[in-house]
Design a protein that fits this description.
Length: 504
């Protein structure tokens, strides 16, 4: 890169989770000791507009993000009221009373070059087991309410899982802001009322009080409105409502009535599903629903019926259109967070999509010539990642067997996207999952959800079938026993949180 063409300034429009994650990551990435000065970073946000005010559950890569920006775990957990998340318990998706768990870890070790799940699929086909969960350490830990960080020793059974957090995203943004400001990021408070554009590039944003902020690169973190990427540059939006009809949510926190469990609960309701997310200081609850199948008041009533205690805030009502921006990067604007698209939080993926978006931008960071090859690659990979998460979420609805509620019949009868149909066909044929680059969920995540919903492979690998069935069953029994004992040897989740609090 020619030094005289380098980006001198980055303006981040929006100070929600996306804006402050972008600011803290960029501040860290450009803080090269002894290197030349990085671009100036400015965050513009408006307290009167506020943030979306939800977003509490994450997936394991968030730990790499925190470590990359130098945020210590004990400090982070204390600042954000965080608890541990080992996965998601899905209730009532197949029928009332049904339950399955998607844990952050694989089902057992590889045996003779075959993923262990293949041996378990065979035991299922032979009628010897009815679920994979006893071979998922995080599922067993979650059921027992136990937690300790994974062992660093790859030979230990206690190395076979990962974890994420539940936390208050507003407090997370506040903590990130402190880090970013300490590293030199400038924050401007004010409402943007105008955006000046020249030849498909944003020149400046204009604040209500007349201040004008010019920049070489803009990161649009303005939330659903997509102030720059859509409002100014008209990047376009691909609407996925035909596959994912939920378009509203109502969120209602309540006080905790028991010690926090180390998992999210996602319970199917008449026209969508309800989340329960335990934090240290409260429980987050919300109902994601489709306005085509239930009205707002009935949705609120249904959510209230399931609450364990009286709510501590007024309902936060949200509207969204599931889909993605056709171009997440256009001209000199890169959209990150809700400005780049939205997928409902069934697998807690939005904050992760922010993280991967920022990572890609740093990898493909442009100079002021904005080489189109960088933009094309960024948009290709972003689109692909959004689509793969979309397919995973559609699978939950499409395969849900429940018969109560028109929404569920609609989702079952609705043909899935070709990409998902092909994935399901391969899984049904052989229990394999074809993954592309940048997929957030690996084979065993798919196996957990598909088998949890009652979809099992018709055949398993012939390499697995050669082994003696009784021996395979005996070995699987020993492994399940080992996993059960290992989980039981760990401390209570609540004890872990206490220890973390004391070390903050
Ligand atoms: P916002 O929070 O909306 O922030 C937008 C920012 O732009 C604000 O600072 C605002 O002031 C500023 N702004 C906008 N317009 C202007 C203007 N004109 N002038 C100046 N400033 C402006 N994600 C997860 O990972 N896990 C979850 O469990 C989860 N649950 C969710 C549940 C629901 C119902 C919804 C809707 C989302 C959920 N998310 C979840 C997503 C998560 O909340 C968002 O991805 C995340 O908070 C990022 O939001 P954001 O920063 O893009 O936008």
């Amino acid at each position: 890169m020619q030094d005289d063409r380098k980006i001198r300034s980055v303006a981040i429009v929006g100070g929600g989770t996306a804006g402050w994650m972008a600011a803290s990551a960029m501040a860290k990435a450009f803080a090269a000791p002894g290197g030349s000065a990085g671009p100036t970073i400015t965050v513009i946000e408006s307290e009167t507009i506020g943030t979306v005010g939800v977003g509490e559950a994450t997936i394991p890569p968030i730990r790499q993000f925190n470590s990359m920006i130098g945020l210590d775990e004990a400090d982070f957990m204390a600042a954000t009221g965080a608890t541990v998340k080992l996965g998601i318990a899905f209730h009532d998706w197949s029928a009332p009373g049904s339950r399955y768990f998607h844990g952050f870890g694989d089902f057992g070790p590889e045996v003779r070059g075959q993923a262990y799940r293949q041996h378990l699929f065979r035991l299922h086909a032979e009628g010897r087991i009815d679920s994979l969960e006893a071979w998922s350490l995080p599922s067993v830990m979650a059921a027992k309410g136990r937690f300790a960080p994974p062992s660093d020793d790859p030979r230990s059974v206690l190395s076979a899982y990962s974890y994420a957090y539940h936390f208050d995203a507003g407090l997370f943004a506040r903590r990130l802001r402190a880090l970013a400001e300490a590293a030199g990021t400038v924050r401007l408070e004010g409402r943007i009322v105008d955006v000046t554009v020249d030849a498909d590039r944003v020149q400046a944003v204009v604040l209500e009080d007349g201040r004008r902020v010019e920049s070489d690169l803009f990161i649009d973190c303005s939330g659903f409105r997509g102030l720059l990427i859509e409002g100014a540059l008209k990047a376009g939006y691909e609407d996925w409502t035909r596959w994912l009809p939920c378009d509203r949510a109502v969120a209602l926190p309540c006080p905790a009535t028991r010690a926090p469990v180390p998992y999210t609960a996602a319970t199917a309701l008449s026209a969508g599903w309800r989340w329960r997310i335990p934090l240290q200081h409260r429980v987050g609850n919300g109902y994601v629903y489709s306005s085509a199948f239930i009205d707002d008041q009935a949705a609120l009533d249904e959510l209230l019926q399931g609450l364990e205690a009286a709510p501590v805030a007024e309902p936060n009502r949200l509207r969204f259109v599931t889909g993605r921006r056709r171009m997440a990067w256009k001209g000199n604007v890169v959209a990150v967070g809700l400005a780049s698209g939205f997928l409902e939080p069934l697998e807690s993926t939005s904050i992760n999509l922010i993280q991967t978006g920022i990572g890609r931008l740093l990898e493909l960071f442009p100079d002021r010539d904005f080489d189109p090859a960088l933009l094309t690659e960024y948009n290709r990979r972003t689109a692909q990642e959004f689509e793969r998460v979309r397919d995973f979420i559609i699978a939950h609805y499409h395969l849900a067997g429940r018969s109560e509620g028109e929404l569920w019949r609609h989702c079952r009868d609705n043909a899935p996207p070709d990409t998902l149909a092909a994935k399901l066909e391969l899984f049904r044929a052989r229990g394999e999952v074809s993954l592309l680059e940048d997929e957030s969920f690996r084979e065993d995540s798919w196996a957990a959800v598909l088998t949890g919903l009652g979809v099992w492979p018709r055949r398993v690998s012939p390499l697995v079938q050669r082994l003696d069935l009784d021996q395979v069953q005996a070995q699987a029994g020993r492994l399940a026993d080992l996993i059960g004992r290992a989980a039981a040897s760990l401390p209570d989740h609540a004890a872990y949180l206490d220890a973390r609090r004391r070390s903050a």
